[in-house]
Amino acid sequence: MDLKSGYPFWAIKNGLIQAFPQLQQDLRCEVLVIGGGITGALIADELARNGGHEVVVIEQRDIGWGSTAASTAMLQFEIDTPMVELARQYGQDNAAAAYLACARAIDQINVLCQPLGEVDFQPLASLYYASSRRDGRHLREEYALRQRYRIQQQWLEPDEILQRYGFAAPGAILSAKAARVDPYRLTYRLFSRLASAGVGIYDRTCASQLRPHGQGMEVTTSNGARITCNQVVLATGYQAQQWLQQPVARNRSSYAMVTDPIDPDQLGFLRHTMLWETARPYLYMRSTGDNRLLIGGEDDALDIPARRDARVQRKAQKLLKKVQRLLPSLPMQTTFSWAGTFAETADGLPFFGAHRQWGPRVLFAMAYGGNGITYSMTGAELLRAAIEGRSHRLSELYGFARLD
Protein backbone atom coordinates (compact mmCIF):
# COMPACT_ATOMS: atom_id res chain seq x y z
CA MET A 1 0.00 0.00 0.00
CA ASP A 2 1.40 3.40 -1.05
CA LEU A 3 1.01 5.53 2.09
CA LYS A 4 2.70 8.80 1.16
CA SER A 5 3.59 11.16 -1.68
CA GLY A 6 6.19 13.86 -2.24
CA TYR A 7 9.11 14.50 0.10
CA PRO A 8 8.27 13.91 3.79
CA PHE A 9 10.49 16.17 5.87
CA TRP A 10 11.52 13.66 8.55
CA ALA A 11 12.87 11.07 6.15
CA ILE A 12 14.85 13.69 4.22
CA LYS A 13 16.15 15.37 7.37
CA ASN A 14 17.23 12.15 9.08
CA GLY A 15 17.91 9.72 6.24
CA LEU A 16 18.09 6.00 6.90
CA ILE A 17 19.27 6.15 10.51
CA GLN A 18 19.95 2.47 11.13
CA ALA A 19 19.67 -0.79 9.22
CA PHE A 20 17.90 -3.77 10.78
CA PRO A 21 18.15 -7.34 9.45
CA GLN A 22 15.58 -9.18 7.40
CA LEU A 23 14.14 -12.25 9.10
CA GLN A 24 15.53 -15.37 7.41
CA GLN A 25 14.77 -18.16 9.90
CA ASP A 26 11.88 -19.54 11.95
CA LEU A 27 11.61 -18.32 15.54
CA ARG A 28 9.45 -18.34 18.65
CA CYS A 29 8.50 -15.46 20.93
CA GLU A 30 5.84 -14.48 23.43
CA VAL A 31 4.50 -11.42 21.56
CA LEU A 32 4.96 -10.60 17.88
CA VAL A 33 4.43 -6.95 16.99
CA ILE A 34 3.73 -6.52 13.28
CA GLY A 35 4.53 -2.94 12.29
CA GLY A 36 7.71 -0.90 12.64
CA GLY A 37 6.33 2.62 12.83
CA ILE A 38 5.89 4.87 15.86
CA THR A 39 2.87 2.86 17.08
CA GLY A 40 4.76 -0.43 16.94
CA ALA A 41 7.76 1.17 18.63
CA LEU A 42 5.73 2.49 21.57
CA ILE A 43 3.93 -0.84 22.01
CA ALA A 44 7.11 -2.92 21.80
CA ASP A 45 8.82 -0.61 24.28
CA GLU A 46 5.93 -0.87 26.75
CA LEU A 47 5.76 -4.66 26.49
CA ALA A 48 9.50 -5.40 26.55
CA ARG A 49 10.93 -2.72 28.86
CA ASN A 50 8.04 -2.12 31.23
CA GLY A 51 6.27 -5.47 31.07
CA GLY A 52 9.24 -7.80 30.70
CA HIS A 53 7.66 -9.66 27.79
CA GLU A 54 9.66 -11.46 25.11
CA VAL A 55 8.93 -9.40 22.00
CA VAL A 56 9.82 -9.60 18.32
CA VAL A 57 9.00 -6.85 15.80
CA ILE A 58 8.69 -7.22 12.03
CA GLU A 59 8.13 -4.45 9.45
CA GLN A 60 7.52 -4.93 5.73
CA ARG A 61 9.38 -1.74 4.74
CA ASP A 62 12.38 -0.08 6.34
CA ILE A 63 11.67 0.98 9.93
CA GLY A 64 9.63 4.16 10.14
CA TRP A 65 9.17 4.39 6.39
CA GLY A 66 5.36 4.16 6.29
CA SER A 67 2.98 6.74 7.74
CA THR A 68 5.45 7.65 10.49
CA ALA A 69 7.66 9.42 7.96
CA ALA A 70 4.66 11.49 6.80
CA SER A 71 3.34 12.34 10.28
CA THR A 72 3.28 15.98 11.37
CA ALA A 73 3.55 14.86 15.02
CA MET A 74 1.25 17.39 16.63
CA LEU A 75 0.98 15.99 20.16
CA GLN A 76 -2.33 17.17 21.55
CA PHE A 77 -4.75 16.13 24.26
CA GLU A 78 -7.48 17.66 22.11
CA ILE A 79 -9.16 15.11 19.85
CA ASP A 80 -10.46 15.90 16.36
CA THR A 81 -13.95 15.12 17.66
CA PRO A 82 -14.93 17.84 20.17
CA MET A 83 -15.40 16.73 23.75
CA VAL A 84 -19.01 17.95 23.60
CA GLU A 85 -19.74 15.65 20.66
CA LEU A 86 -18.06 12.67 22.30
CA ALA A 87 -20.10 13.33 25.43
CA ARG A 88 -23.33 13.11 23.40
CA GLN A 89 -22.29 9.71 22.08
CA TYR A 90 -20.65 8.10 25.13
CA GLY A 91 -21.38 10.31 28.14
CA GLN A 92 -19.37 13.11 29.67
CA ASP A 93 -17.19 10.91 31.86
CA ASN A 94 -16.07 8.77 28.91
CA ALA A 95 -15.42 11.85 26.78
CA ALA A 96 -13.34 13.36 29.57
CA ALA A 97 -11.47 10.07 30.04
CA ALA A 98 -10.43 10.09 26.37
CA TYR A 99 -9.23 13.70 26.55
CA LEU A 100 -7.42 13.26 29.85
CA ALA A 101 -5.73 10.08 28.60
CA CYS A 102 -4.24 12.06 25.72
CA ALA A 103 -3.02 14.72 28.16
CA ARG A 104 -1.39 12.06 30.31
CA ALA A 105 0.16 10.50 27.19
CA ILE A 106 1.99 13.75 26.40
CA ASP A 107 3.60 13.66 29.84
CA GLN A 108 4.49 10.00 29.34
CA ILE A 109 6.10 10.72 25.96
CA ASN A 110 8.10 13.53 27.57
CA VAL A 111 9.49 11.11 30.16
CA LEU A 112 10.13 8.50 27.46
CA CYS A 113 12.09 10.93 25.30
CA GLN A 114 14.43 12.29 27.99
CA PRO A 115 17.02 9.47 27.96
CA LEU A 116 16.84 8.95 24.19
CA GLY A 117 18.80 12.00 23.11
CA GLU A 118 17.74 14.49 20.45
CA VAL A 119 14.28 13.66 19.11
CA ASP A 120 13.06 17.29 18.99
CA PHE A 121 10.57 16.81 21.81
CA GLN A 122 9.38 20.17 23.08
CA PRO A 123 6.35 21.06 25.23
CA LEU A 124 4.12 23.61 23.53
CA ALA A 125 0.91 25.51 24.13
CA SER A 126 -2.06 24.92 21.85
CA LEU A 127 -4.22 27.72 20.46
CA TYR A 128 -7.53 26.39 19.11
CA TYR A 129 -9.38 29.22 17.41
CA ALA A 130 -12.90 29.57 16.03
CA SER A 131 -13.03 29.82 12.25
CA SER A 132 -16.47 31.50 12.27
CA ARG A 133 -18.92 33.17 14.65
CA ARG A 134 -21.03 30.03 14.74
CA ASP A 135 -17.93 27.99 15.59
CA GLY A 136 -17.18 30.54 18.30
CA ARG A 137 -20.47 29.70 20.06
CA HIS A 138 -19.72 25.98 19.84
CA LEU A 139 -16.20 26.54 21.09
CA ARG A 140 -17.59 28.33 24.16
CA GLU A 141 -19.66 25.23 24.91
CA GLU A 142 -16.56 23.08 24.47
CA TYR A 143 -14.62 25.30 26.87
CA ALA A 144 -17.37 25.07 29.51
CA LEU A 145 -17.45 21.26 29.42
CA ARG A 146 -13.68 21.03 29.73
CA GLN A 147 -13.83 23.35 32.73
CA ARG A 148 -16.05 20.87 34.56
CA TYR A 149 -13.22 18.35 34.39
CA ARG A 150 -10.59 20.89 35.45
CA ILE A 151 -8.68 20.77 32.19
CA GLN A 152 -6.07 23.52 32.22
CA GLN A 153 -7.13 26.11 29.65
CA GLN A 154 -7.93 29.76 29.08
CA TRP A 155 -10.68 31.41 27.04
CA LEU A 156 -9.54 34.26 24.79
CA GLU A 157 -11.84 36.97 23.47
CA PRO A 158 -11.34 38.45 19.97
CA ASP A 159 -9.42 41.49 21.21
CA GLU A 160 -7.04 39.29 23.20
CA ILE A 161 -6.39 37.08 20.18
CA LEU A 162 -5.64 40.09 17.99
CA GLN A 163 -3.38 41.70 20.57
CA ARG A 164 -1.41 38.58 21.50
CA TYR A 165 -1.31 36.72 18.19
CA GLY A 166 -1.97 39.28 15.48
CA PHE A 167 -4.99 37.77 13.74
CA ALA A 168 -8.76 38.03 14.03
CA ALA A 169 -10.96 35.22 15.37
CA PRO A 170 -14.31 35.14 17.25
CA GLY A 171 -12.74 33.29 20.17
CA ALA A 172 -10.11 30.71 21.08
CA ILE A 173 -9.09 28.18 23.72
CA LEU A 174 -5.48 28.38 24.86
CA SER A 175 -4.26 25.13 26.41
CA ALA A 176 -0.97 24.46 28.11
CA LYS A 177 -0.81 20.75 27.29
CA ALA A 178 0.71 20.06 23.86
CA ALA A 179 4.08 19.15 22.40
CA ARG A 180 6.04 18.37 19.26
CA VAL A 181 8.44 15.57 18.39
CA ASP A 182 10.37 14.14 15.45
CA PRO A 183 8.37 10.88 15.08
CA TYR A 184 10.82 9.25 12.67
CA ARG A 185 13.85 9.78 14.91
CA LEU A 186 11.88 8.77 18.01
CA THR A 187 10.90 5.51 16.29
CA TYR A 188 14.50 4.68 15.45
CA ARG A 189 15.78 5.60 18.93
CA LEU A 190 13.21 3.33 20.57
CA PHE A 191 13.93 0.39 18.28
CA SER A 192 17.69 0.88 18.59
CA ARG A 193 17.41 0.73 22.37
CA LEU A 194 15.22 -2.37 22.16
CA ALA A 195 17.63 -4.09 19.78
CA SER A 196 20.52 -3.33 22.15
CA ALA A 197 18.52 -5.03 24.90
CA GLY A 198 18.11 -8.18 22.80
CA VAL A 199 14.70 -7.59 21.21
CA GLY A 200 14.53 -8.94 17.66
CA ILE A 201 13.78 -6.11 15.21
CA TYR A 202 13.41 -7.17 11.56
CA ASP A 203 12.56 -4.93 8.64
CA ARG A 204 11.82 -5.83 5.01
CA THR A 205 9.85 -8.74 6.51
CA CYS A 206 6.21 -8.95 5.48
CA ALA A 207 3.58 -11.01 7.32
CA SER A 208 1.56 -12.84 4.69
CA GLN A 209 -0.52 -15.25 6.78
CA LEU A 210 -1.85 -15.49 10.35
CA ARG A 211 -3.36 -18.70 11.68
CA PRO A 212 -4.10 -20.24 15.09
CA HIS A 213 -1.43 -22.67 16.25
CA GLY A 214 -2.06 -24.70 19.40
CA GLN A 215 -2.58 -22.22 22.22
CA GLY A 216 -1.11 -19.36 20.21
CA MET A 217 -0.58 -18.09 16.68
CA GLU A 218 1.70 -18.85 13.76
CA VAL A 219 2.67 -16.05 11.37
CA THR A 220 4.19 -16.85 8.01
CA THR A 221 6.27 -14.22 6.23
CA SER A 222 6.43 -13.64 2.49
CA ASN A 223 9.82 -15.37 2.29
CA GLY A 224 8.53 -18.46 4.13
CA ALA A 225 9.84 -17.85 7.66
CA ARG A 226 7.48 -18.90 10.45
CA ILE A 227 7.02 -17.12 13.75
CA THR A 228 5.25 -18.99 16.54
CA CYS A 229 3.96 -16.79 19.36
CA ASN A 230 1.41 -16.54 22.13
CA GLN A 231 0.08 -13.18 20.96
CA VAL A 232 0.11 -11.06 17.81
CA VAL A 233 -0.20 -7.28 17.88
CA LEU A 234 -1.13 -5.76 14.51
CA ALA A 235 0.34 -2.25 14.55
CA THR A 236 0.36 -1.80 10.79
CA GLY A 237 -1.40 1.55 10.75
CA TYR A 238 -3.94 2.07 8.01
CA GLN A 239 -3.11 -1.28 6.42
CA ALA A 240 -4.43 -3.14 9.47
CA GLN A 241 -7.93 -2.92 8.00
CA GLN A 242 -6.98 -5.55 5.42
CA TRP A 243 -7.03 -8.15 8.21
CA LEU A 244 -10.68 -7.39 9.07
CA GLN A 245 -13.84 -8.24 7.16
CA GLN A 246 -15.71 -5.52 9.04
CA PRO A 247 -15.00 -1.94 7.85
CA VAL A 248 -13.95 0.18 10.82
CA ALA A 249 -12.61 3.38 9.25
CA ARG A 250 -12.31 5.20 5.96
CA ASN A 251 -9.02 6.18 4.38
CA ARG A 252 -8.38 9.80 3.51
CA SER A 253 -5.45 11.92 2.35
CA SER A 254 -3.83 14.75 4.28
CA TYR A 255 -1.31 17.26 2.96
CA ALA A 256 1.61 19.01 4.60
CA MET A 257 4.53 21.30 3.89
CA VAL A 258 7.50 22.67 5.76
CA THR A 259 9.14 26.07 5.25
CA ASP A 260 12.71 27.20 5.14
CA PRO A 261 14.05 28.19 8.58
CA ILE A 262 12.49 31.43 9.82
CA ASP A 263 14.20 33.97 12.05
CA PRO A 264 13.05 33.16 15.62
CA ASP A 265 12.00 36.78 16.23
CA GLN A 266 9.78 36.68 13.17
CA LEU A 267 8.42 33.26 14.07
CA GLY A 268 7.21 34.86 17.30
CA PHE A 269 4.55 33.00 19.28
CA LEU A 270 4.75 30.01 16.93
CA ARG A 271 8.05 29.04 18.54
CA HIS A 272 6.15 27.85 21.61
CA THR A 273 2.50 27.56 20.49
CA MET A 274 0.83 25.30 17.93
CA LEU A 275 -2.14 26.72 16.07
CA TRP A 276 -5.23 25.03 14.71
CA GLU A 277 -8.84 25.91 13.87
CA THR A 278 -12.39 24.64 14.26
CA ALA A 279 -13.15 24.37 10.53
CA ARG A 280 -13.16 20.86 9.07
CA PRO A 281 -10.84 20.00 7.47
CA TYR A 282 -8.73 22.27 9.64
CA LEU A 283 -5.57 24.23 9.04
CA TYR A 284 -2.83 23.59 11.59
CA MET A 285 0.78 24.58 12.12
CA ARG A 286 3.64 24.18 14.53
CA SER A 287 7.36 24.94 14.63
CA THR A 288 10.30 22.55 14.42
CA GLY A 289 13.51 22.54 16.41
CA ASP A 290 15.35 24.36 13.63
CA ASN A 291 12.69 27.12 13.45
CA ARG A 292 10.83 25.92 10.41
CA LEU A 293 7.06 26.09 10.23
CA LEU A 294 5.28 22.79 9.57
CA ILE A 295 1.83 23.40 8.06
CA GLY A 296 -0.85 20.82 7.38
CA GLY A 297 -4.46 20.34 6.35
CA GLU A 298 -6.47 20.38 3.11
CA ASP A 299 -7.62 16.82 3.86
CA ASP A 300 -9.77 15.12 1.24
CA ALA A 301 -11.48 11.78 0.70
CA LEU A 302 -9.02 10.69 -1.98
CA ASP A 303 -7.52 7.23 -1.55
CA ILE A 304 -5.91 6.76 -4.97
CA PRO A 305 -2.12 7.21 -4.66
CA ALA A 306 -1.51 8.46 -8.21
CA ARG A 307 -4.19 11.15 -7.91
CA ARG A 308 -3.00 12.06 -4.41
CA ASP A 309 0.54 12.43 -5.78
CA ALA A 310 -0.66 14.86 -8.42
CA ARG A 311 -2.33 17.12 -5.84
CA VAL A 312 0.63 17.64 -3.50
CA GLN A 313 2.03 20.84 -5.00
CA ARG A 314 -1.36 22.47 -5.48
CA LYS A 315 -2.44 21.59 -1.94
CA ALA A 316 0.85 22.94 -0.54
CA GLN A 317 0.24 26.26 -2.28
CA LYS A 318 -3.25 26.42 -0.78
CA LEU A 319 -1.86 25.80 2.70
CA LEU A 320 0.77 28.47 2.24
CA LYS A 321 -1.79 31.02 1.06
CA LYS A 322 -4.07 30.29 4.02
CA VAL A 323 -1.25 30.97 6.47
CA GLN A 324 -0.22 34.10 4.58
CA ARG A 325 -3.77 35.44 4.87
CA LEU A 326 -3.87 34.66 8.57
CA LEU A 327 -0.35 35.90 9.39
CA PRO A 328 0.66 38.20 6.51
CA SER A 329 3.83 39.50 8.18
CA LEU A 330 5.35 36.03 8.51
CA PRO A 331 7.97 35.34 5.80
CA MET A 332 7.58 31.83 4.39
CA GLN A 333 9.08 29.77 1.61
CA THR A 334 8.09 26.15 0.97
CA THR A 335 11.00 23.72 1.21
CA PHE A 336 9.31 20.31 1.07
CA SER A 337 5.71 19.20 0.64
CA TRP A 338 4.08 15.81 0.90
CA ALA A 339 0.85 13.90 1.45
CA GLY A 340 -0.04 10.84 3.44
CA THR A 341 -2.88 8.37 3.82
CA PHE A 342 -4.65 8.39 7.15
CA ALA A 343 -7.72 6.61 8.44
CA GLU A 344 -10.66 8.28 10.12
CA THR A 345 -13.15 6.52 12.38
CA ALA A 346 -16.72 7.76 12.64
CA ASP A 347 -16.21 9.04 16.20
CA GLY A 348 -12.54 10.06 15.99
CA LEU A 349 -11.49 7.43 18.54
CA PRO A 350 -8.97 4.62 17.98
CA PHE A 351 -9.38 0.86 18.18
CA PHE A 352 -7.13 -1.13 20.51
CA GLY A 353 -7.77 -4.73 21.44
CA ALA A 354 -9.18 -8.00 20.17
CA HIS A 355 -11.78 -8.34 17.41
CA ARG A 356 -14.26 -11.21 17.41
CA GLN A 357 -13.11 -12.27 13.93
CA TRP A 358 -9.70 -13.29 15.31
CA GLY A 359 -10.29 -13.87 19.01
CA PRO A 360 -8.09 -12.89 21.96
CA ARG A 361 -4.73 -13.99 20.48
CA VAL A 362 -4.69 -11.18 17.90
CA LEU A 363 -4.76 -7.61 19.17
CA PHE A 364 -5.23 -4.60 16.91
CA ALA A 365 -3.52 -1.24 17.38
CA MET A 366 -5.43 1.20 15.20
CA ALA A 367 -4.36 4.65 16.37
CA TYR A 368 -6.52 6.38 13.79
CA GLY A 369 -7.25 10.09 13.60
CA GLY A 370 -5.26 13.21 14.38
CA ASN A 371 -3.97 11.91 17.72
CA GLY A 372 -2.10 8.89 16.46
CA ILE A 373 0.97 9.20 18.66
CA THR A 374 -0.82 10.04 21.91
CA TYR A 375 -3.39 7.33 21.18
CA SER A 376 -0.53 4.88 20.67
CA MET A 377 1.03 5.79 24.01
CA THR A 378 -2.23 5.03 25.78
CA GLY A 379 -2.91 2.03 23.56
CA ALA A 380 0.44 0.48 24.50
CA GLU A 381 -0.68 0.40 28.13
CA LEU A 382 -4.11 -0.92 27.16
CA LEU A 383 -2.67 -3.78 25.08
CA ARG A 384 -0.18 -4.69 27.78
CA ALA A 385 -3.06 -4.90 30.25
CA ALA A 386 -4.97 -7.18 27.85
CA ILE A 387 -1.96 -9.48 27.43
CA GLU A 388 -1.47 -9.63 31.20
CA GLY A 389 -5.17 -10.28 31.89
CA ARG A 390 -5.79 -6.94 33.56
CA SER A 391 -8.58 -4.43 32.99
CA HIS A 392 -8.03 -0.96 31.61
CA ARG A 393 -10.25 2.11 31.98
CA LEU A 394 -10.45 2.67 28.22
CA SER A 395 -10.68 -0.92 26.96
CA GLU A 396 -14.40 -0.64 26.17
CA LEU A 397 -14.33 2.90 24.82
CA TYR A 398 -11.39 2.08 22.56
CA GLY A 399 -12.65 -1.41 21.70
CA PHE A 400 -14.55 -2.83 18.73
CA ALA A 401 -17.68 -3.44 20.81
CA ARG A 402 -18.71 0.18 20.28
CA LEU A 403 -19.40 -0.69 16.62
CA ASP A 404 -22.15 -3.14 17.62
TrEMBL record:
Domain FAD dependent oxidoreductase intervals: 31-383
GO CC, alphabetical: cytoplasm
Keywords: Oxidoreductase
GO molecular function (one): oxidoreductase activity
Name of the protein: Amino acid oxidase
Organism: Stenotrophomonas koreensis
